[in-house]
Design goal:
Residues 234-248 have a biased composition (Low complexity). InterPro entries: Aur-like, Kinase-like_dom_sf, Prot_kinase_dom. With 273 residues, the protein is α+β, with helices and mostly antiparallel strands. It is 40% helix and 16% strand. The protein folds into two domains: 3-108, Phosphorylase Kinase, domain 1; 145-261, Transferase(Phosphotransferase), domain 1, CATH 1.10.510.10. A hairpin with a 3-residue loop joins β5 and β6. 19% of the residues are buried.
């Protein structure tokens, strides 16, 4: 693999950016928080007053492994931009001061509604938080259970060739999610597979399994000790369900491409760090 085809962290990348949080950004509003970072929306003056998202990391709270992870994140975003991958958040820049790292990227006001859990849809719009109509401190935090839901949507799509909550537009999709109007699986999906997916798509987050609990499900246990991923094809009805077969073919093509990117990501190079 050539160096140009690998995710690379450029030498002195943080130091080379002339931006400062005090002089180049205005109207900072907290819109999210993680274990190691706080995310703000802001107006970036050097980008023509463009609204951006700014991730801020406190250096005093970061272990060396986390600093490496931050640099890897930057390297991967640069890699995706260089290869023009679609539907990837754009990186605008990164810089640092004595106490913090800053990553400036595209501000996304909405997500993919088809994969949103009911509790995510119930949240106020980001614009309401940015404008101050709703305080970020008033919003109940979501947990990893929203990711379990999104993974359940992916599994459903894999075995049926369609989304569990459909609609002619985003509003109808949101309504079907909040009112829990889920599509049927069809007779070609096994009872064990259905039970797995239904548990992940439980309306109440408390009723969804954790990632650890999910791995103990009987459907996954069938394959856990065989050194292979679950054979979702075995849950399908072969030629009697051409839609899922077509979708599986596309998924395999995507999987091969994803494996290539993951392989390259695993060998990313850090230069001048």
């Amino acid at each position: 693999m050539s160096e140009q085809d690998s995710p690379v962290f450029p030498p002195n990348f943080f130091e080379s950016c002339p931006w400062s949080i005090q002089n180049d950004f205005q109207s900072l509003k907290e819109v999210g928080k993680g274990k190691d970072t706080v995310i703000y929306s802001a107006v970036c003056l050097p980008l023509g007053n463009k609204i951006v998202a700014v991730k801020i990391y406190d250096k005093s709270r970061l272990a060396s492994t986390k600093v490496r992870a931050i640099k890897r994140e930057v390297a991967m975003m640069l890699y995706f931009m260089r290869h023009r991958y679609p539907n990837v958040v754009e990186l605008y820049g990164a810089f640092e001061d004595e106490s913090r790292y800053f990553i400036v990227m595209e501000y996304c006001s909405v997500g993919t509604v088809e994969y949103m859990a009911p509790e995510v849809i119930a949240l106020p719009p980001v614009d309401a938080v940015v404008s101050g109509q709703v305080r970020a401190s008033e919003i109940p935090p979501n947990t990893e259970k929203v990711d379990i839901w999104a993974l359940g949507v992916t599994f459903f799509e894999l075995v049926t060739g369609r989304l569990p909550f459909e609609g002619k537009d985003k509003l109808e999709i949101k309504t079907n999610i909040t009112e829990y109007r889920m599509s049927g699986f069809g007779p070609h999906v096994s009872a064990q597979c259905q039970d797995l997916i239904r548990s992940m798509l439980a309306y109440d987050p408390a009723d969804r399994p954790s990632a650890e609990e999910l791995l103990q499900h009987s459907f996954l246990a069938l394959y856990r000790n065989k050194g292979a991923a679950p054979a979702f094809e075995s849950s399908l009805g072969g030629s009697s369900s051409p839609g899922p077969s077509v979708r599986l073919g596309r998924l395999k093509s995507w999987s091969r491409a994803s494996s290539t990117v993951s392989s390259k990501a695993g060998r990313w190079e850090e230069r001048g760090a």
